[in-house]
Amino acid sequence: MSTSTEQFADVSATTLLRFATAGSVDDGKSTLVGRLLHDSKSVLTDQLEAVEAASLKRGQEAPDLALLTDGLRAEREQGITIDVAYRYFATARRRFILADTPGHVQYTRNMVTGASTAELAVVLVDARNGVVEQTRRHAAVAALLRVPHVVLAVNKMDLVDYAEPVFAAIAEEFTTYASELGVPEITAIPISALAGDNVVEPSAHMDWYGGPTVLEHLETVPVSHDLTACHARFPVQYVIRPQTAEHPDYRGYAGQIAAGAFRVGEEITVLPSGRTTTITGIDALGESVDIAWAPQSVTIRLADDIDISRGDLLAPVGDAPETSQDVEATVCHVADQPLSVGQRVLLKHTTRTVKAIVKEIPSRLTLDDLSQHPNPGQLVANDIGRVVVRTAEPLALDSYADSRRTGSFLLIDPADGTTLAAGMAGESFATTKAVAAVDEEEGWDF
Q1: Which of 104, 101, 32, 94 is nearest to 68 (CA)?
Q2: d(CA 218, CA 240)
Q3: In degrees, to the nearest 5, what angle opens at C-alpha 185 toward C-alphas 130 and 30?
Q4: Which range, of 73-87, 108-122, 161-175, 324-338, averages the lowest pLDDT?
Q5: For residue 260, which of 88, 35, 78, 12 has the smallest C-alpha distance?
Q6: Which residue has the higher pLDDT, 103 or 307?
Q7: Cross-strand bridge partners of residue 349
Q8: Which secondary-structure segment (H or E) carries 364?
Q9: 3-state percent helix, strand, coil for the chain, nearest multiple of 5
Q10: pLDDT tens column, 79-98
Q11: Does the pLDDT of residue 337 top 50, yes or no?
Q12: How far is residue 364's CA from residue 331's CA, in Å, rounded to a whole number?
C-alpha cells in the first residue's frame, strides 16, 4: 500500500484540541467549564436536571454549573476542584478534550498532569484579586511544559462593574510575566463565567472589548500537527515472536510511535546500542503498510536479527538523539516526600525504566521574580527546580523543547513506586561534565 507525502499530510490533519484550565482557588474554573459545556449544548438533559436538583438542595436558585465537572463528593462538599476532570465535547468547528485542573497549591501536581498533553492552557484570574502566586505558578508550569498557547481569562468581571482598566492592568501584568517565562502566545479575554459574558456568546456589558469569546478562540486557534516534520521516534514496548507453524521466523517489535513517521525501506538506528538496520515491514491493525506515523500502534520488522528488547528506541539514521547517563533537566516535584541530593530513584523514560541517583539540585525556581535559588539541597511538594541525574544505563532523551514525548521522564521512588517528580530534559545533556564516583552499595553500582 503506497502512500504519498500529500496523502500522509491529509491523514495527519486533525480538528482535535486538547486544552487545560488552571487558576487559583475560587477563580471559577469549574464554572467556566460548566458554562462552556452548557452554552455549547454539550450537556445531556439528565445531567442538567441532576445539577439543577443538587443546586436547589444547596439553596441555590440557579443551577451551579461547576457541578458538571466537580464529580468527587469531597469536591462538591468543599466547593473546590481536587482531581483532574476530563471532559469531551464538540462543536461544528472542532472537537475538544478538556482537562479541568485544581487551583489549590497542594494540587499543583494535578495541574502538571492535565497540562502535560495540552496544546492550550486557560489560566483564570479573579478580577478582584488580580495575578496571585498560584497564577504565576500555573503560568510557569505551562511554560515549562511547552504549552504553545495560553489564554488569560479574567473572570468575575461582573463583580468589578465590567471595568476596562481593571482588565487592562491584569492583562499587562500577566503578559509581562508569562513573556519572561517564554510563553509564545498569550490571549487575554475578560469574562464572567457565572453570567456567561464572553464565554460562548459576546458580552453586552463590555462593548470596549472587540476580541473573540473563549469558545471562538478555542475553535480558531491554530494547532499544528505536522507529524512529517517531527523527529521520528519509536520506543519498543514488546517483542513479538509467535514461533508457530504459520509464522516460524516472524520477529516484530511492537509499540506506539511517539513522534514522526517510519517507512518501509528506511534505515534506522537502535538505541542505546547504536546498531543500524533497515525496516523491512510495518504491520498495523493486522495489515502490512508502507508508512506509519504517530500516534499509531504498530509492529515494525527489521532486516537484521539484533538484540532489541523493551525500552530500546528506534530512530532514523542521521536523526537519532544522543545517548547519555547524565540527565540535566527541570522537574516539577509532585510527591509529599522531598527529593534530595544523593537520593536513589528510578527514572522512567518512554518504555524504559532504569536506576538512577540524584547527583545535584543546582537551583529552585522562585516564582515571585523568576530568580533561581541556588543549591537548595532538596525539592519539596510543588517545587520547580533543576536537577542533574546519573543513570545506571545510557538513555536516548531528546530535548523537551523538541519533543514533549521523548524529552520527558518520571522520577520514581524504588521502595513503593510513588512518582516523585515529572522531568523535562534540557536543550543539552551534561555529557562532558565530570561525575563523581557513586558508592557501590545495595546494587546501585554504576
Answers
A1: 32
A2: 42
A3: 50
A4: 73-87
A5: 12
A6: 307
A7: 352
A8: strand 352-366
A9: 20, 35, 45
A10: 444 456 788 888 888 999 98
A11: yes
A12: 10
Under 8 Å between Cβ of 306 and 272: no
Give, rounded to a whole angstrom, the gap between the first and last alpha carbons of the chain.
47
The grid cell for 408 is: 520527558
Place of cell 464554572: 31
Residue 123 pairs with which residues in a beta bridge? 22, 152
DSSP 63-106: --GGGGT--SHHHHHHTS--S-EEEEEE-SS-EEEEEE---SGG
Reported as a single tens digit per residue, the pLDDT across 183-210 is 889 999 999 998 889 999 999 999 999 9
The reported pTM is 0.79
287: cell is: 495489515
Q: Residue 374, preceding bond cis, omega within 30 degrees?
A: no
3-state secondary structure of 68: helix
What is the pLDDT of the chain when averaged over all its residues? 83
Confidence of residue 219 (pLDDT cuts 50, 70, 90): very high
Which three cell numbers, joined as nine digits, stand for 365? 525556581
Contacts of 366 (CB under 8 A, 6+ apart): 372, 373
